[in-house]
Specification:
- The chain is 38% helix and 11% strand.
- It has 277 residues and is of the alpha/beta class.
- It has an eight-stranded mixed sheet with strand order 1-2-5-4-3-6-8-7.
- The chain is globular.
Amino acid sequence: MTDTAATTGAASQPRRDRSSDLSASVASVPGSDVGADLAAASAALEGESPQEILRFAAGRYQPGLTLACSFGGPSGMVLLDMMMRIDHTVEVFYLDTDFLFPETYKLRDIAAAKYNFQPTGYMSLLTPAEQAAKHGEALWATDPDACCAVRKVEPNRRALAGKTAWISGIRRDQSATRADTPIVEWDDKFGLVKVNPLASWTESLVWKYILDHGVPYNELHDRSYPSIGCTYCTRPVGVGEDPRSGRWQGFDKTECGLHAPDGQAGLLHIVEEVEAE
């Protein structure tokens, strides 16, 4: 089933997809030569600007390249602005968990109108009501890893099915689990190349670019939300708190599962169960 949401501007409408077609598998595994090639590319790109890294990605992997932009974090908006200046044909997708903030949808529509592109939102195969019936009410409060597996990891697998590479906005300064993020890597979880153009950037560099270039950003950032996810799992952060402390409060959880190793993200069996239904 495919849902369509209206936009606020004249740009083409964002697509929201809840279909389960996984005919284009992403379950490939790189050979040793591919791994060495990616490591060499990553090393060569250290110190290059994010724009040069994006040009490299577009030149090597487009068509088939896709950019992840949550319309929540500032890094994704920086990459969106840069990519729209470099190659407007690169696909842009986001994960529509059904629990995004109204401000997130608003920014999606503002960006679609500003850059004249059509973002695609990938949704869980389970509606919130179906999830509650299968896993219990308020899964995010009882087992947030399972909720993320159903509403983020599985849709991300469909978003990347058949793609050559994806672009992520993660940075080394965001958390200890991301401190060793390479510029280019093989993503074992999703079975394709992953490019991290902002890996070496800091939060201050991201915001400098936004202000210098007039990039739209999620207005929740002006209300003490440095890290924005789903409504049920995100709270404002106080002065002196870790920027990601507003996520999954009360749980020893720092990642949604998209950028964590399988062992850390866990619960991939839930993803497979959802896909099999």
